[in-house]
Amino acid sequence: YAMLLSLIFLIVLVAAIVGFVFRHEIKTNFESNLNLALKNYNVTADRHSEAVDTIQRTLHCCGVQNYSDWERTEYFSQRGIPRSCCKSQNDCSEEDLKDPNKAKLKVFVDGCFFLVTSTMESKMSVVAGISFGIACFQLIGIILSCCLSRYITNNQYEMV
User: Which residues cross the membrane (predicted)?
Assistant: First the structure.
C-alpha cells in the first residue's frame, strides 16, 4: 500500500513539475488550438464549435485576441460573427454581426485567450493549495502504512 501511494505521489509531483516548466508551451498550444477552432468554426454542432461558444458566452469575450479575429474566418463571410459573442441576444441581428463597425457596439470586444489564461492563473493558487493538502494526506498515509508494516513484521511471532 505504501508503495502504491508513493507511486501515485511521484506521478502527481512529476505532473506538477512538468506543468510548471512547460506552462508557456501550454499557453502557445492553447492559443493555436483556439485559432484553429475559430478557423474551422461552423454551425453543425461539433464539439470544437460548442467549446468556442461556451467560452465566449461564459467569459464574455469574442475571438482569440479580439472580436476582429472572426473577420478572417470562412464563417464570417457567410454569417458574420457568431451570436455567442453578443452582449445581448435580443439586440443582435444578423446584419449587425456581418458589419464589423456595427458589431463592435453589439459584441464583446475583448479576446478570449487573455481571459482564459488570466482566469486559469488566478485559480492556480487554489489548485496548488488543494494539491498540497492531498499530497500531505498521501505522505501521512505512506508513513502510517510503513509503521503498520513494521509493526506486523516485528510481532509475527505473536500471531496465532
Answer: 126-152
